[in-house]
Amino acid sequence: MTFFNTELTLLVLGVILFTTVLAGTLSSRFGFPALIGFIGLGILAGVEGPGGFYFENFELTQGIGIACLLFILFSGGMGTDWRDVRRMAAPALLLATIGVLISAGIVALSAIFILGFGPLQGALLGAVIASTDAAAVFAVLRSSGLDLHGDVPALIETESGSNDPMAIFLVGALLFLIESPSASPLQLAPDFVIQMVMGAIVGVGVGFAMPEILKRGGYQQGGLAFVISIAAALIAFGLAELLAGNGFLASYLAGIVAGNRTYAAKETVSGFQDGMAWLSQVVMFFTLGLLVTPSNLAPVIIPGLSITFILMFVARPLSVFICLAPFRQFDWRSKLFVSWAGLRGAVPIVLATFPMVAGVPGAFAIFNVVFFVVLLSSIIQGPTIKWAADRLGVRS
């Protein structure tokens, strides 16, 4: 009987994966990001859909999300040209730090007035939703065939891969301050420096080591080379976290360094990691869809709409225009497009599970608002990326 159940389970998993990919493909054909299809199928399989599957494990979802995100960032790093990173380091880092703070602050103020949140709960919502999503940005820009001029595409991709650590730090810091009201925010400054420095050191180290191991070990094509690339992504994240560094920054930097070195299996490993990233997106978004109860979104429609439009038309543009003000290569058209291309995706939803797991007051409302904002952002911004590029004249 156990053997039969194992077979059935594996069959169901295979059917779910295949069906989820078809849903994402169908979503893309209608001009929406694939994540809409992935999440949509998860909702249909969930407790209020035809599937009727009850799933409410936020801790498991958080673990799945973290694992998937590290592979998405590692793969995104492998597909990023180091020359772009070096050229765009200054503006991208400003957007990834100061820009995230500006967006988080504006959303926090909005949440206090619109949702009636306290200052820390409002700041928590702002931090959760402030960063752009690497998975969504990489998928939309690399699959849409957009040929953008100048440094715009390099800036958008570099920012999206590097701003998650800031958002994750802010969420962790705010959870700490909520749990320890007497603590001072200044206590967290050394933690931020340590996280970034250790994450960078581990990421660069693993990124250098992986190609050397592949070359010296004679792993020239496929097979064990794929296993080593998986191990590199996992080691970069895990080692950085154990050393008090930021694992997501380490994963992204390890991918960048490894992807810009020369070794025999590079092309096949890069293709394999691209497949891993897509598998991670499918699993992550489907799981997030399972977690959502659509009827719980009804009460947040009006405030969710308000927060979404403030984020899209106030917070994000202000942060971009302020951070890019010193860089003359970006005119107002480029800045508007960078603002519009700041897609939200899995990262905010995964981060929204942190307050749920921690038992923070108002965490359920934060999760539902974040999920609604991500859906609306994907539905509005995703299909209009090409239109915005044409209207703003940023296509080559």
Describe the 3D structure.
- By secondary structure, this protein is an all-alpha fold.
- The protein has helices at residues 2-29, 34-45, 58-78, 82-114, 119-129, 134-144, 152-162, 164-179, 189-216, 224-242, 247-259, 266-291, 301-323, 332-340, 346-358, 363-381, 385-392.
- The chain has a single domain (65-392), classed as Na+/H+ antiporter like fold, CATH 1.20.1530.20.
- Helix content is 76%, strand content 0%.
- The longest helix is centred in the N-terminal third of the chain and has 33 residues, at 82-114.
- The model has no long low-confidence stretch (mean pLDDT 87).
Q: Keywords for this structure?
A:
396 residues, mainly alpha, 17 helices, Na+/H+ antiporter like fold
Question: How are the secondary structure elements laid out?
Answer:
Layout: H1 2-29, H2 34-45, H3 58-78, H4 82-114, H5 119-129, H6 134-144, H7 152-162, H8 164-179, H9 189-216, H10 224-242, H11 247-259, H12 266-291, H13 301-323, H14 332-340, H15 346-358, H16 363-381, H17 385-392
Helix pairs in contact: 1-2, 2-12, 3-10, 3-11, 3-12, 3-15, 4-5, 4-7, 4-13, 5-8, 5-15, 5-16, 6-7, 8-15, 9-10, 9-11, 10-11, 10-12, 13-14, 13-16, 14-17, 15-16
